[in-house]
Amino acid sequence: MSFLIYGAGGHANVLADLGSINGATVPVMFSDDAQHHSEDGRVMICAYDPLLFPALPLVIGIGNNKVRELLASKVRHTFTRLIHPKVVVAADALIGEGTVVLANAVIQANCRIGNHVIINAGAVIDHDAIISDFAHVAANAYIGGGAVIEKNVLVGQGAVVTRNTVVKEGTVIPPLTVVGA
Question: How many other C-beta atoms lie within 10 A of the C-beta of residue 68?
């Protein structure tokens, strides 16, 4: 399997590494920074071109929720999801297109994860939780059972969202914060 990445920074490099762990190749990383070049020469980095590898799916490797949303509306490639092999995902959990789930994350029973979401390393999404489109649940954060994370929310590193809590669209939860119902 091969896929493309839109982005060439830190998050994009994590996704490229995840691809190699899963046996995939990444022939191109798209970057809006025309001056950006690959240091090792293994991956071509260039401006987005919908005619370049049109049959390959793409994932947006940019951590900023609003930028991911903007790019998702402009990109003409299809999207793929990336899930690290060291992730636990319940059989009935639904994970949307363009979403990435990184190492040691846990997604429990009956969870609904939207499109272009980042579930970062070590995050836990408990049963019946809903993570809406373009959200980012940072490393080691915990989302309680039945909680709803609305669109474009950033849940900071190590933050806790208690069960049945609704976090409104665009909210930024600082690291190590507890947010309750």
Answer: 27
**Radius of gyration over alpha carbons of the chain, in Å?**
16
What pLDDT digit, counting tens, does each position of 37-53 carry? 555 556 788 999 999 99
Residue linked to tokens 């490797």? 61
What is residue 25's DSSP assignment? B
Give the Cα separation of 168 and 94 in Å (integer): 21
Give the span between the Cα atoms of 161 and 178, in whole angstroms.
Answer: 6
Choice between 45 and 116, residue whose per-residue pLDDT is larger: 116
127 included as an active-site residue? yes
Out of 37, 77, 84, 127, pick the active-site residue.
Answer: 127
Between the alpha carbon of residue 126 and those of residues 84, 104, 171, 173, the distances in Å are 18, 14, 20, 18
pTM here?
0.94
